[in-house]
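Our consortium's second objective concerns turning raw sequence data into structural hypotheses that experimental partners can test. To show how far this objective has progressed, the report includes one record in full. It was chosen at random from the queue rather than selected for favorable results. The single chain below, 172 residues long, was entered without modification.
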Amino acid sequence: NVFAAGVGPPQRAAKKHTSRFLLIFDISSDMKQRVPAVQKALDTLLATGANGQLHLGDSVGVWTFDQDLHTGQFPLQYWEPENAPMIASNITKFIRKLHYSKKTSFDALQPLLNQVVQGSQRLTVLIFCDGNGEIHGTPYDPGINQVFQQRQSERQKERLPIVIVLGFQHGQ
């Protein structure tokens, strides 16, 4: 008796879509006093794998901005849960060494962020900011800007950042 198993073209495993995470840090002068709180939030975020949203192979990018956008200053990371402490430590060291000056301008983010969104299957953007200025270009601008106004004095006094989380799928 002869029988053949697996006759036909080889089957490919379904391609897993990896997600992209983009951490954007406001480096305006008002953020300098908030760096310890940013570090703590970042440590918690990465220790929990973004509350289970980060998966093996997902990319983690880092940008900074003030009145200008700064990219390419920190190498793209690929998520491995066992390396979470090292990734958090490297990003924390990076944000600690930055020069904090100028004012916050969310307008500096929009052009390149829009390009990245359009080219992404799944993208989560976390913006660590002081809440100064106004954000434009998202469907949630009025709500975000309202929170900025309502929470500004409280956040300033407690030296806490505001973290905006935006999720995008299929370029939207």
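The partners drew two points from this record. The CA atoms of residues 117 and 171 lie 5 Å apart. Confidence is low (pLDDT under 50) at residues 1-15. Both points have been shared with the crystallography group to help prioritize constructs.
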